[in-house]
Amino acid sequence: MPNPHAFIPFEPTSDDIAQRGWSLQRDAIDADLVAALARECRARAAAGELSPAGIGRGDGQQVREGIRGDRIDWLEPGQAEPCDRYLALMDELRLRLNRELFLGLEDFEAHFALYPPGAFYQKHLDRFRDDDRRAVSAVLYLNPEWLPGEGGELRLYLDDGSTRDVLPEAGTLVVFLSGELPHEVLPASRERLSLTGWFRRRGDGPL
Ligand code: OGA
Ligand code: MN
């Protein structure tokens, strides 16, 4: 039966985040919604609406393909129905993280990202020197039938010195503490789509 909320309860999130700083769930989002988001991302790409991603924030922003080679477009409320549904789901997750982990997350920003074949994003943290509002990252993958040999893994650098590679398979959602978990995107042999977002705290200057 289709899930009317298009959301399988994301139960492990809070415990996993509290204990190890990250959480992963396959088939976290209704498959029809994931497919609609992939179509929206491809439509924006075909319309020339994706721009080379920058590094950093505001005036300090630079496009440096040696660091990241994806092209992005931000989600704004009211643009497209599947995006609005996704934003609503992420707001539910935001409230639950606040309830269960007292994170004080205030809002959510997200963009589509398209990595052409061979593009990558070097090891980094999702917190800028000049903007520490990003507290929790949430990445949803939009690629049906991704095969292990195709590359494009999200590589997480864990506390114990080991790494964990995540295939960017449609429906997989990875949630992690933005300032604490270094990660990178490995190059792929095919186009790779993701929807990357950040729950943010109130902006009241350096912590
Ligand atoms: C990012 C990022 C991961 C991914 O945009 O900061 O790390 O798998 N994306 O797309
Ligand atoms: Mn990142």
UniProtKB/TrEMBL annotation:
Residues 106-201 form the Fe2OG dioxygenase domain. Its cofactor is L-ascorbate. It comes from the Bacteria. One of its GO terms (molecular function) is peptidyl-proline dioxygenase activity. The keyword Metal-binding applies. Pfam families: 2OG-FeII_Oxy_3. InterPro entries: HIF_prolyl_hydroxylases, Oxoglu/Fe-dep_dioxygenase_dom, Pro_4_hyd_alph, Pro_4_hyd_alph_FE2OG_OXY. GO terms for biological process: cellular response to hypoxia. Keywords: Dioxygenase, Iron, Metal-binding, Oxidoreductase, Vitamin C. This is 2OG-Fe(II) oxygenase. It comes from Pseudomonas tohonis.
